[in-house]
# Entry
Amino acid sequence: MAPAEQPAWTPDQPIVRLRDVRKSFGSLEVLKGITMDVAKGEAICIIGPSGSGKSTLIRCINALVAIDEGSILVEGQEVNDPKLDKLALRRKVGMVFQQYNLFPHKTALQNVMMAPVHVLKQDRREVEDRARALMRKVRLEGKEDAYPGELSGGQQQRVAIARSLAMRPDIMLFDEVTAALDPETVKEVLQTIRQLVEDGLTCLIVTHEMGFAREVADHVYFTDRGVIVEHGPPRDILSNPREERTKAFLEQVL
Amino acid sequence: MAVVADWFRWLYEATGFNFTIFYDPYDARQMLGGFLMTVQLSVISILLSLVIGILGAWLQGSNLRLVRGLVGGFITVFRNTPPLVQIFFFYFGIGTLLPGTENQWGMRQPMLSNVQWAIISLSLFAGAFNVEIFRSGIEAVPRTTVEAAEALGYTRLGTYRHVVLPLALRVCLPALNNNLVNLLKTTTLAYAIAVPEMLYVAKQIWGSSQNVLEMMLFLLFAYVGLVGILVFIMHRWERAMRIPGYGR
# Structure
């Protein structure tokens, strides 16, 4: 393929644009043609039963999973391109995982500082100031020197969010970030994400928390068996779903 | 010092136990040299074998099948052959193939000395085991932790250096400890190519003083001491690397 000149991306265009994205693991087709547009500053919630391809979908966006067919544009840059600079892409797209995945051999503060220092080669002292500010932002002041193993699940997850934010991403991906948490600690993590959405950060959130989706999402996508069944503003999808599959799913989880 | 020397001389006269190395200045100098040679062989080989282990484990994760195959071949050769055979192979086999120079007496001066060959051969021998030890540690690092580093934009090398290796090291330290102890003891094989390490010197001394038992006793104590120091250092390292709330 010739190095096609991609038109420069402007903020009024979708910051993430998926067109007919397909992905199979062996004979199992997980994504069967996903199309979606996410505007800058928008919060998107993706809901659906387990195994519907939600996690795979957002993992494609930062190229943790390579897609088979289709197109993903992030800020106008094609992700489905063998010549893609994955590292540059991942500096723009932050990700938070279900299992936090903190670096267990580093303190909370070091976890937040590592990537800016190692990957972006930023000045350590300046990064530390920012990391301390982020620790305050996720309300973990005083836990800077604790190791992940000494923190609760909710605290670890908030460190993981701070770790991603330290890279100053344009887009954040949240992959069922409260699924492994106790009910009491779910709230503190959701509160942190809500704050980011209010700050105007573009967020793609895979979640099972319907109340949260209703509250923060600008747009909700319901996926099942690798397709988007329906999507729209949260009150339409969550309160008045049109599709039978959506109705059945919501009846089960609510 | 004089007190010690006098006591050992008295011990010899009274009981017949002849520890020449503690009162005879020549033997003492010889044995000190042998001791330092053993320390030198051990320290350099340990460090080189660690480098080989870390490098080999990194290359083993390569995307290129050829590179992985080469590492696998290296491990097979050095793990499946006796270390003495390896030392002979390097010193007599490869050593004579390398170009040499003539020294001032017109003798052939080999490019690498027997000490250097011993270090190379011992490092490769222990390094092959270290590759496997580090690999076991690397495999114990959760895939999800590596994924988190990738998602933050780390390169493969950056992930290895800052995330995988520090965690893998903690897992594999006990196994590494064993292998390095073995390496220290294997330095005695350098005896076979006339490297003047402790065993070689001891044999020279008992050749002239007929004090085999005494020299063997000394060797036993010396190795217990050396290995003891190594184990002490490794345990200190293990403790220093312990992470609060992780593992035990």
